[in-house]
Design brief:
This protein is mainly beta and 175 residues long. 0% of the residues lie in helices and 60% in strands. The protein has 2 domains: 83 residues, 2-Layer Sandwich (Glycoprotein, Type 4 Pilin), CATH 3.30.700.30; 69 residues, RNA polymerase II/Efflux pump adaptor protein, barrel-sandwich hybrid domain (OB fold (Dihydrolipoamide Acetyltransferase, E2P), Beta Barrel).
């Protein structure tokens, strides 16, 4: 199954298509402003290192992720790629805004909500541990929890839906 992620570096947004089989990954990277250019790479991850094989050769890169993006250090260069969570290209994908997904492969160490519960913007709904770091999954807006699809201890894949939110709650003004 192919997963698509959008990464922002400086003013450019890259589309990363990822196919995974265990610890081996096939990457296709496109920059929308240069659609004729696609970088293909085979990758494997071990702890905080990525081993990439491209047409230009084999590279060993240091990788680390925080809650908003990924740091990549390769051949003396370090770059930060912010994960774009709100890129929507098709009407059929518009509903994805209410799905809170795993920012990377890891283990769920805490689930703090249950279906029917009301959350406010910024409330932590789950905590994921990956690469020796904790990632707080927060509600982007006030809503009622529709569905929780993970449990404490679950191993989850990058992009896997963890929690589904209902429609945004609108504050009631009293007159």
């Amino acid at each position: 199954m192919q997963k698509k992620i959008h990464l922002k570096n400086r003013d450019r947004i890259y589309e990363l298509a990822l196919e995974s089989k265990g610890v081996h990954h096939r990457l296709s990277i496109k920059e929308p402003s240069m659609p004729e250019t696609t970088i293909q790479a085979d990758a494997s991850l071990q702890a905080d290192q990525a081993f990439l094989t491209t047409q230009q050769g084999r590279f060993v890169c240091a990788v680390a992720q925080d809650a908003n993006g990924i740091w990549v250090g390769c051949q003396g260069h370090v770059e930060y790629f912010e994960i774009e969570r709100k890129v929507v290209h098709k009407k059929t994908e518009a509903k994805a805004d209410n799905e809170l997904r795993a920012p990377m492969t890891g283990r769920v160490i805490s689930v703090r909500v249950q279906p029917g519960q009301t959350v406010q913007a910024g409330d932590v709904v789950a905590i994921l541990e990956a690469m020796k770091m904790e990632f707080r999954i927060e509600a982007p807006y006030a809503a009622q929890i529709e569905k929780v699809t993970c449990r404490q201890g679950d191993l989850v894949d990058l992009g896997q839906v963890l929690v589904t939110l209902g429609a945004p709650l609108v504050a009631q003004n009293k007159k």
